[in-house]
Input
Amino acid sequence: MAKKQKTVLTKESMTFLKNYLNNPSPTGFEKEGQKMWLQYMQPYIDEQIVDAYGSAVGIINPDAPFKVVIEAHADEISWFVNYISAEGLIYVIRNGGSDQQIAPSKRVNIHTEKGIVKAVFGWPAIHTRNRNPEGKEPQPKVDNIFLDCGARSKKEVEDLGIHVGCVITFEDGYEELNYDYIICRAIDNRIGGFMIAEVARLLKENKQQLPFGLYIVNAVQEEVGLRGAEMIAKRIKANVAIITDVTHDSTTPMINKNVEGEIRCGNGPSITYGPAVHNILRDLIIKTAQKHDIPFQRHAVSRSTGTDTDAFAYSNDGTPSALISLPLRYMHTTVEMVKKEDIENTIMLIYHTLLGITPKTNFKYL
Output
């Protein structure tokens, strides 16, 4: 039985996490969240870079020739205003993998140049919903869900500053549940940005001198195809990359473990097996976990990981890359749920793994 780690999360860390999760950072509009993240990182880094689309990088030892990346993505799923009806109702399209099933009755923020406009995803009352001849009720679809902001004409909507292309985020924020669980929208994957920032903090506070340049990357636009990671990977040209993201807790109802494998919140970070994951780096991570009594789980993917790992692995003629994932329940909903103990263990696994890498570490298969 693995021994429980002494907590590494400080009061200041948790205040940052709460504020960071509550701050909207929809795909393509991550600017304010990236500002917040870089401000928190300042005491722990030597330099920073921000690319044209907003991926942010904190650098330790920027002059070192050997480069190691630890990476997460900053963006959250959201919606775009797509059409405004004559009656003042607003129809939407996805920005990332937004789930129409959870939308009805949700409160949202419409982001405009005039500021936030409050609205709700309307849905007919159970008494009034039209049923087809078989008695089946209509189901939420992207083309039938709509927003009601109180306006009763297209002009009233436009007078509020709303136009086609305005981005929309859910309102739900940070809460703590029983047994050290945290819930929020957008834990996927701002929790990753938080964890890599905490690694930087621990390196500084413990006065660790790394024999390489460490690039702490918070990439944009993962939710629409790993685009931010693709851009920043080409710019940094890392020798090694460790990516952190979330993965599905498969122990809740309606998930087939035969398909998804078995991952459980509270059992530690998940380490991925798959073609994009470099075997030597993955094994180094596993040995590190075993050496430091950090609990971990294993997960296999048949092709791509579906994370920024793929973008780094296949960049610059190939970059040894690995994926450490945080177990999460209810992904792409407004009540994404993670356990604090898993957060701490993921931070410590990345931290200790970095201390086991040197420029002389052999990552060649042959």
Notes: The chain has a mean pLDDT of 96. The first strand starts at residue 47 and ends at 50. The CA atoms of residues 287 and 353 lie 9 Å apart. The longest helix spans residues 187-205.
